[in-house]
Amino acid sequence: MSADPLFALRVTVATACRVLGHRGLVDGVLGHVSARVDDTSLLVRCRGPEERGVALTEPRDVRLVDFEGNHLESSDGWQVPKELPIHTGVLRADASAGSVVHAHPRSALLCGLARLPLAPVFGAYNIPALHLAVRGVPVYERSVLISRRDLADEMVAAMGERRVVLLRGHGITVAGDTVEQATVRAIDLEELCRVTVELAAIGAAVDVVPEHDRVELPDLGTAFNDQLHWQALVAELLRAERAEGRDAR
Questions:
Q1: In terms of Cα–Cα distance, which of 72, 48, 71, 74 is closest to 59?
Q2: Phi, psi at residue 127, to the nearest 5°?
Q3: pLDDT at 206 (0 to 100)
Q4: Marked catalytic residue, from 83, 180, 190, 191
Q5: In the 8-state DSSP scheme, what is residue 71?
Q6: What domains does the chain contain, in order, with CATH numbers?
Q7: pLDDT tens digits for 109-120?
Q8: Looking at residue 40, what DSSP letter applies?
Q9: Does pLDDT of 86 surpass 90?
Q10: Longest dimension (CA), the chain
């Protein structure tokens, strides 16, 4: 058993990175996941001395840093993400947020560039994604590297009371109570974007789900929406890793 009291959380963050890679939300070395430790520190996926990409993240790639980006353990060659302010900005603004995902999924990128509205076009197919669309997905208009606190504050202002934001020409930022919730929510958001892009590609005129049908699609709660979905995603990832001859880490 590891003597590291944060080891289990490191494993969860690393697993989230690999899940996002397996599902195509991150590519190469771009993208990162974090988990709040307390009000001044967080675990975040850093780039290591033997970098292999986000989709191959190991627990050792998840490092403890403070909100200013200082390593709180031996850095050993790991570099804190330049866009750490994305994570610290959200965690400062939302005291109940326990995790932040920043990714560059292609469908979200295309929706932003084409200014496609994310509308509630489907129902029971993906209820959490429907509710994201009903509440509205805000957009941060600047296609910049969010490497400073003032830029992160702009992004957080664009998010408002929501926990998702589309970064035009860039990617997405998603927050959650837990790493599992933030990861699943990012995947749901990308599914909404994917369907939106595909409908636009075929020129479909699609009606939104009417209110009288929406009331038949309740929020099933975090145990179903987040935890069960997370477990299925991890099982899918581990099966793929076994098929590739890789040991799950």
A1: 48
A2: -65, -45
A3: 87
A4: 83
A5: B
A6: 7-243 (3.40.225.10)
A7: 999 999 999 999
A8: S
A9: yes
A10: 57
